[in-house]
Amino acid sequence: MKKEEFVALGIDEKLAEKAAEESKKELSGYVPKTRFDEVNEAKKQLETSANDYKTQLEALKTSAGDNETLKQQIADLQAQNQQKDTEYQEKLKDMQLTSAIKLAIADSAQDCDLVAGLVDKTKLILGDDGKVTGLDEQVKSLKESKGFLFKEQPKPQVQNPVPGFKVGAVVTPGQTSGDGKVSMKDAIAAKLQSQMGQVKE
């Protein structure tokens, strides 16, 4: 959980900050769900491919008698496997891009799935290191054109000066300090003068 979420639950700001730090430490060893899904999907795809290859080998063994037929079957299987590999690579790239988009907008978007669907993946470049080029520009553009899809960033709180005197403040009589506070001496003198004025009346 983040500091803002702890504060929203009514926890003191300093305590919320400590809790957020501890929460971050606790979650540091965990794999993000998007990454887990990506690896899990890759595992399923590899298992499916392995089973397909096994079936294809069995079929080849049964037709090993006819040399021309065997060559044709091998050529067909190679084409099919090439097609499956291309489809798998495209699917994996799409999953990696989707994961990267969702991670980039997780803190700011109201609905990650909705915003991720608005990003044009054809304009993104996925590097070997997993970094996506062109994503920041699209997210910035979406924030400007469809700001309602994103959470409002918390504005820094400005503390208004509390009226009254400030202990230890050095202020010339009758003047206030830079923060609008008067010294204790002046506050007492002003109170006495107002009471004396009331007594004289």
User: Based on CA inertia axes, which overall geometry fits?
Assistant: elongated
Strand order of the largest sheet: 1-2
By oligomeric state, this entry counts as single chain
Uncertain stretches of 5 or more adjacent residues: none
H-E string? HHHHHEEHH
SS content category: mainly alpha
Give the total of beta strands: 2
Secondary structure topology:
Elements: H1 3-8, H2 13-27, H3 33-62, H4 67-105, H5 112-118, E1 125-126, E2 132-133, H6 135-145, H7 184-200
Antiparallel strand pairs: 1-2
Helix pairs in contact: 3-4, 4-5
Describe this structure in words.
This protein is mainly alpha-helical and 201 residues long. The protein has helices at residues 3-8, 13-27, 33-62, 67-105, 112-118, 135-145, 184-200; strands at residues 125-126, 132-133. A two-stranded antiparallel sheet has the order 1-2. A hairpin with a 5-residue loop joins β1 (125-126) and β2. α3 runs antiparallel to α4 (67-105) and α4 crosses α5. The chain is elongated, with a radius of gyration of 34 Å. The two termini are 64 Å apart. The relative contact order is 0.06. The model has no long low-confidence stretch (mean pLDDT 75).
